[in-house]
Amino acid sequence: MPTRAHAAFLFALPVLLLLPACGGGGGGGTSAPALTYTFTSFAYPGASATGARGINDKGEIAAYYHASAAETDTHALLVVGTTMTVIDPPTALNDARSFGINGSTEVVGSYQSPTGQLGFVRAGSGAFTDIAYPGSTGTTIRGNNDAGDLAGEWDDTGGVRHGFTRIAGTFASIDFPGAPSTRARDLNNLAQVVGHYDDASGGLHGFVLDAGVYATIDYPGAAGSMCGGINDAGTIVGAYVDAATGARRGFVLAAGVFTPFDYPGAGETLPTGINNLGQIAGEYVDPSGARFGFVATPTP
């Protein structure tokens, strides 16, 4: 049986942030009303770092924490209300992480098994299923939708990373045209996929894949862009690399309009999931370098 531990949230005081929208990168110079969020941060007790990833419409969160400074000393978390539960797969050696969660509280992620890196699906009942992309040397599941479709990444025998989907049980590789490597991060109930890819010069670009058509998503003026999550309205959250500082900053892209999105006072912000209520999950790094999970809830 997987190890389970329960702990209460360690809440920071909620804060309000007013975010002005800006055009560019496909926005056509249009504007949109400013957005206001209430932010709440959390950390697993005793963890060296905590991160939130996916969030479903019930506000349940797929997350993970680092038990020590070692990069692979990580454990998968399911966050429901004020309770955090460790949900490591039973055969996990290390590096277990939760990345996505759907409306049935089905959690997806990855872990290091005795035979290599595997993806997993944890049903709402608590049962685990291992997932491996056919012929891969490593598989990570990053997102899932309410139909149980999956999105993630797989490594081939040459060490090249590809994205993939598994729709209605059928796997398909995702490779942005001309890109040396591609990563798929999430998919919604319309099977629209977001992620990022590297170009031939090493540049980082976000993308959306809709009905077989790829589109690049680059935050205006950024040194690199990544897309992390998409909801059924097509609203995308992600991060960009600040060209001046090299820090990662968040964004929301809705109806072609980018809105900068940062946890107040953070050194870096990485939004990774958005639900159909507009709640955003992710992680931030404070000025001391400590990493925390967060949830941002739109306010009326």
Tell me what the structure shows.
This protein has a domain at 6-164 and 255-298. Strands 1-7-6-5-4 form a 5-stranded antiparallel β-sheet, with no helix packed on it. A 5-stranded antiparallel β-sheet has the order 2-3-26-25-24, with no helix packed on it. The chain has a 4-stranded antiparallel β-sheet with strand order 8-9-10-11, with no helix packed on it. Strand 25 (280-285) and strand 26 form a beta hairpin. The protein has no helices and 26 strands. It has 300 residues and is mainly β. The protein has strands at 6-8, 15-19, 35-42, 49-55, 61-66, 74-80, 83-86, 94-101, 107-113, 116-122, 128-131, 138-144, 150-155, 161-167, 170-174, 181-187, 193-198, 204-210, 213-217, 224-230, 236-241, 248-254, 257-261, 268-274, 280-285, 291-298.
Features of the shown structure:
300 residues; mainly beta; 5-stranded antiparallel beta sheet; globular
Which helices and strands, and how do they pair?
Blueprint (H helix, E strand, L loop, with lengths): L5 E3 L6 E5 L15 E8 L6 E7 L5 E6 L7 E7 L2 E4 L7 E8 L5 E7 L2 E7 L5 E4 L6 E7 L5 E6 L5 E7 L2 E5 L6 E7 L5 E6 L5 E7 L2 E5 L6 E7 L5 E6 L6 E7 L2 E5 L6 E7 L5 E6 L5 E8 L2
Antiparallel strand pairs: 1-7, 2-3, 3-26, 4-5, 5-6, 6-7, 8-9, 9-10, 10-11, 12-13, 13-14, 14-15, 16-17, 17-18, 18-19, 20-21, 21-22, 22-23, 24-25, 25-26
